Amino acid sequence: MKILVTGGAGFIGSNFIRYWTNKYPDDKIVNLDALTYAGNLENLKDIENNKNYEFIKGDIRDADLVNDLVKDVDLIIHFAAESHVDRSIQNSEDFIKTNVLGTRVLLDAAKNNGNIRFHHISTDEVFGALGLDDEPFNEDTPYDPRSPYSASKAASDHLARAYFHTHKLPITISNCTNNYGPFQFPEKLIPLFITNLIEGEKVPVYGKGENIRDWIYVDDHNAGVDAIIKKGRIGETYCLGGENEITNLEITKKILNLMGMGEEMIEYVKDRPGHDFRYAMDITKAKNELGWRPKIKFEEGLKKTVEWYKNNKDWWRGIKSGSYLEYYKKQYGRN
Ligand code: NAD
Ligand code: TYD
């Protein structure tokens, strides 16, 4: 099988390519990635010489390139996106361009080249925000995106579904909760906090740290995508999650504990505008239909992640001293 993976130089995409090449070494993978600030070929150093792997630097909005690339492909797995909520609050333009228009280009290419099987990677954030007593999201929860990021992902989900209904394009969609693990760009909560602490810097907790997310180790997410590719029903959506709801403050304390540091390293900063209070996912459908479930306990995954960032300082120090600094200063008002 030949697979086009988009966004494979990012966090989840690079972990996916590693997962897939280990499990299915005979499959061919083409990784199309524009190498934005979030894309990094260092993430795939161990794969780059694999004879069944090819990297193409390019934009998913480049219709000629995409049409060319999909010609002999059996499956498209679409990870590429602008993925950070805070950046979408600063400026949403690239989110609409890549997440909405880019997805449209890929769907058209799949449709115009023999209705290629298409898996669309999405997020729990399209469903909106939950209160403490609300039932977790599931596949029937109405869409209610509240940030420019989640609105752009919701639009792309709707487009994928529209191509299924209108053009019979064989799509599936996964909506997953917050991922963590190696190679996550250090703007997201867990890698930002770990790397700040390694540098002796405080960690910026938004508001009172009471917001709740459901965290899943990246390999568990990718195993879920694998199960959907192999067993999922065409046209269906599958909700994936870690069954691991936890407040930001609790995570912060766990990270501090793993790193032998105290709560004096916490800095409570201004809250995110429109900060969604809680995300949680009911993953019954994926469990029943796919036989999939998350396997890695949060304590174990978090420990592995802390160790990875401690052992790979060169990877993130380069990132943290580059263009990222401008974003960071703007976000946290720091020098
Ligand atoms: P990431 O920001 O780490 O990586 C995104 C990748 O897409 C980068 O390599 C970037 O260069 C590439 N890219 C961006 N715009 C592009 C374009 N126009 N053309 C080609 N490549 C482009 O993101 P991630 O955290 O790995 O997320 C991957 C996918 O998973 C996204 O679709 C995201 O919405 C979804 N998702 C993420 C999470 C999470 O917790 N990180 C949770 C659920 C779903
Ligand atoms: P993030 O990793 O940006 O993921 P998302 O917004 O997609 O859930 O943020 C996770 C949670 O952590 C979210 O509630 C916002 C909070 N947060 C902080 O408190 N401080 C930070 O510096 C960041 C980046 C996030």
What does it look like?
- This protein has 335 residues and is an alpha/beta fold.
- The chain has one domain: Rossmann fold, CATH 3.40.50.
- Helix content is 42%, strand content 17%.
- It contains twelve helices and twelve strands.
- The chain has helices spanning 11-23, 63-70, 85-90, 93-112, 148-167, 189-198, 218-231, 248-258, 284-290, 298-311, 313-321, 324-332; strands at 2-6, 28-33, 53-57, 75-78, 117-123, 171-176, 178-180, 203-206, 212-217, 237-240, 245-247, 266-269.
- Strands 3-2-1-4-5-6-10 form a seven-stranded parallel beta sheet, with helices on both faces. A three-stranded mixed beta sheet has the order 7-9-11.
- Helix 1 (11-23) links the parallel strand 1 and strand 2 (28-33).
- Helix 6 packs parallel to helix 8 (248-258).
- The protein is globular.
- The termini are far apart.
- The mean pLDDT is 97.
- It binds nicotinamide-adenine-dinucleotide and thymidine-5'-diphosphate (TYD).
- Thymidine-5'-diphosphate binds next to helix 6 and strand 8.
- Residues 6-7, 9-13, 33-36, 38-39, 59-61, 79-83, 98, 102, 121, 123, 153, 176, 178-179, 185 line the site of nicotinamide-adenine-dinucleotide (NAD).
